[in-house]
Amino acid sequence: MTSLPTPDPGAKKLGLVIDLDTCVGCHACAVNCKEWNTGGHAAPLPDYDPYGKEPDGVWFNRIHSYEAGCGEASRTVNFPRSCLHCENPQCVTVCPTGASYKRVEDGIVLVDMDKCIGCKLCSWACPYGAREFDELAGVMKKCTLCIDRIYNETLPAEEREPACVATCPSRARHFGDFNDPESKVSKLVAQRGGVELMPELGYKPVNRYLPPRQAQIQTAPRERAAEGGNKLLRLLDKVLSR
Amino acid sequence: MKPAASVLLLTTLTGFGYGLLAWLALFALLGLLPASRWFMPVGVVVALGFAASGLIASMLHLGRPERAWRAFSQWRSSWLSREGVASLASFPPALGFAALWWGMGPAPVTVIVGLVAGALGLVTVYCTAMIYASLKPIRQWNNKHTAPNYMLLALFSGAMLMALLLACWTGQAGLAGLLVLLAGLLAAAAKLAYWRFIDTQKPLATLASATGLTRYGEVRPLDAPHFTENYVLREMGYQIARKHAARLRRITIATAFLLPSLLALLAGLGLVPALLIILATLLTAMGLFIERWLFFAEATHVATLYYGR
Ligand code: SF4
Ligand code: SF4
Ligand code: SF4
Fold it and tell me: Helices marked H in B61-104 — which ranges?
């Protein structure tokens, strides 16, 4: 059913917190996402022309790099982009078949690939570009929040978290229940001022992004090349600047 | 947005077909149809032929066309589903309209069934328009112009087919010629207003708000996640040069509306009606195809902000 479920105030609201301060842009989460999911719930994630000139394929997680601000205050921000499991997702309501749905018990947005007719409308309705079409199977695919890991009782308890979270070498991704004010994700959002992406579109994304911290270490002005004066220093500068 | 041939065909052909169906019903109500047993049923077959070919074209673009029947299930939330339901629902009354006319002529029951069919056809066109008009991430579609534009274009192209049928059947375009003129001018005005509107619209979001980095002011793309186009860019990253768009808009206004309206006027005045109306119909079909191409090509999707587009 593609009508949104009536929100249950007691239900879990599962999602990710992504720390833009610590993400180093290594793409490990994207690779592990692909690795896990090509054998998981939405398997396979096809590749087209993988060894050719224009490799392309289905990925649920894409890592951009941006430059934010100008001058001294500017910085590079690595930006992982995956489905935000929105609370008001139009990707669900536009679906004509009931294939795209939001789970009432934990808010995860999924595609039932046995029902999907591949009309692509849901991907048009997602402002975040989070859905990617499987051209070979003719159906839509998307991040599953690793539903087959987080509830997977055959995995050791500490591994029951999304593949992207588990693999991040700088612990920039966190998984948890946003409806529990005591959860790690809720606390992180509160402490670090976690933000919604494009709140103006009204999709109420569950995932939050932690903005980069302001630099806290005051650095002394950098040493300047020796000018005038000491000949030895000038010579040294010349040699070292080569 | 990528202008895919299947959706261009779907939206233009159903407009022609359901527009004609609506006019047939209205003409029947007003007693303006030729007193022939065959004219009306032939008209309905033409109308349904156009509508059905549009719907079939759109089904072929599905990833899994064999599951298309599932699309009738979610009419509570999905305009695409409503479109399917409405179009399916329009067929029985339309066929009934034709059969009743053939059997008993313009009796009240014929006219009522015809009006139901015509209304359902227009509802289908409205649902099609709302598929686009309801998509929040695409500002060129998600506005108050989209649905009236679709309705007017359907009524205009339907009037064109009506004039074509009449001119070929009776040798005169008559009232339908005038109708084409009026609807054509109205549709052209609506289209111009739409273009004016989207040209002055503000972007929906900025890269800064899309990345949650508003505190930094400006945000610029540095490294893309991938070097080749992916699905999102192929489907939604289509860009058309302003220069080309401006030229195509002028071509649209001329070929879809102005020239056909002029030809319809001349035909209405009795100048080789059949020939002129055939010419006008071909021009309209071409012009509306370009118009629909532009409707997609000029539409920008907010997700492409992430790629600096
Ligand atoms: S990010 Fe996109 S695909 Fe994910 S729930 Fe939100 S609208 Fe749907
Ligand atoms: S592509 Fe599949 S999941 Fe998406 S709207 Fe169409 S039927 Fe629903
Ligand atoms: S939660 Fe799972 S499916 Fe979603 S981006 Fe992370 S690894 Fe990929």
Answer: 79-104
Structure tokens that stand for B7 in this block: 């959706």
Is the CB of residue B22 less than 8 Å from the CB of residue B114?
no
CATH fold for domain A14-210: Alpha-Beta Plaits (3.30.70)
Q: At what angle do helices B79-104 and B39-60 cross, to 10 degrees?
A: 160
Q: What are phi and psi of A56, to 5 degrees?
A: -160, 160
Residue B303 burial by Cβ neighbours in a 10 Å radius (0-12, 13-18, 19+): buried
Which distant-in-sequence residues (6+ apart) come within 8 Å of A22 by Cβ?
A170, A171, A172
Please enumerate in sequence order all residues whose Cβ is within 8 A of that of B247, keeping only pairs 6 or more positions apart, or say none: none
A199 to chain B: closest CA residue = B209
pLDDT at A223: 63
Helix (H) or strand (E) holding B305: none
Closest CA to B269 of B180, B203, B161: B180
Query: What pTM does this model have?
Result: 0.93
CB B291 within 8 A of CB B153: yes
Give residue-wise pLDDT tens across range B236-295: 999 998 899 999 999 999 999 999 999 999 998 888 999 999 999 999 999 999 999 999
CA-based max dimension of chain A:
81
A170 lines ligand 2 (CB under 6 A): no
Q: Which residues of chain A have pLDDT under 50?
A: none
A207 touches chain B (CB under 8 A): no
pLDDT, residue A162, reads 98
Is residue A122 within 8 Å of residue A95, measured between CB atoms? yes
Enclosing H/E stretch for A64: strand A61-68
Say if the Cβ atoms of B212 and A115 lie within 8 Å.
no
- Token digits for A36? 């896990």
* A34 vs B183: CA distance, rounded Å: 53
Closest ligand 2 atom number to CA of residue A115: 7
Evaluate whether A3 touches A196 at the Cβ level (below 8 Å): no
Whether the complex's predicted ipTM is more than 0.85 is answered with yes
Residue with tokens 């056809």: B121
Contact A131, A94 (CB under 8 A): no
Short-list A104, A65, A68, A63, CA closest to A87: A104
In the prediction, which pLDDT does A230 show? 77
AA identity, residue B97: F
3-state secondary structure of A46: coil
Cβ of A141 below 6 Å from ligand 1: no
